[in-house]
Design brief:
Length: 192
């Protein structure tokens, strides 16, 4: 018969592994969810929140940011220069493919505003526009999912596991995540 504390330790480790798996899956899903927006900015580089952030978040900036993030993760997992070069080719290809969505995104936003500010609200036209925008987002999501799979295939299985851990840590402190890591950089011990 197992000792009760051994059984509870085993259960705790199982829960811990399960939670770590959920965190990794969430981080990867978050990256896939955010990446289409990163690549699919309007052609003029104007995000919806331009007044708040200026022009710092245009397509060129977002492409470079994605390249830096992938390079940082690949460096952390010990990727070779050949693996990094393959990743850059994949990212450049994805950025090219995502360009097709930029004009549609800006056009859809202008059409939506025009429909919503009209004297009479045309619900059928709004629904049609919503469906078109949803279809474009679905296409962009497919491109980004393919890109993430292509990037993952460049790495070895062990490197992929390390990359997932690194991405999970990168997600801490963002929009409702754990904030402790940010405070550590300022000399504060994490709370909790």
């Amino acid at each position: 018969m197992q000792h009760p504390s051994h059984a509870s330790n085993t259960a705790a480790r199982g829960r811990s592994k399960w939670l770590a798996g959920v965190a990794v899956a969430s981080a990867l899903a978050g990256l896939v969810a955010v990446a289409p927006a990163a690549f699919a900015q309007p052609e003029d580089g104007a995000p919806a929140h331009r007044m708040e952030h200026g022009d710092r978040h245009g397509p060129g900036h977002m492409d470079k940011r994605m390249e830096r993030m992938v390079d940082r993760v690949f460096t952390k997992v010990g990727a070779t220069s050949e693996q990094k070069a393959r990743a850059q080719v994949i990212l450049k290809s994805a950025a090219e493919e995502m360009k097709q969505f930029r004009p549609e995104q800006g056009k859809g936003r202008a059409e939506m505003l025009a429909l919503l500010s009209a004297d009479t609200i045309d619900r059928d036209a709004l629904e049609q526009l919503r469906a078109q925008r949803h279809a474009h987002m679905e296409q962009a999501s497919r491109v980004m999912t393919k890109t993430m799979a292509d990037l993952a295939e460049v790495l070895t299985p062990e490197q992929r596991r390390e990359a997932a851990k690194s991405l999970a840590r990168m997600g801490e402190g963002r929009h409702g995540g754990k904030h402790g890591r940010h405070h550590q950089h300022h000399g504060d011990a994490p709370k909790g």
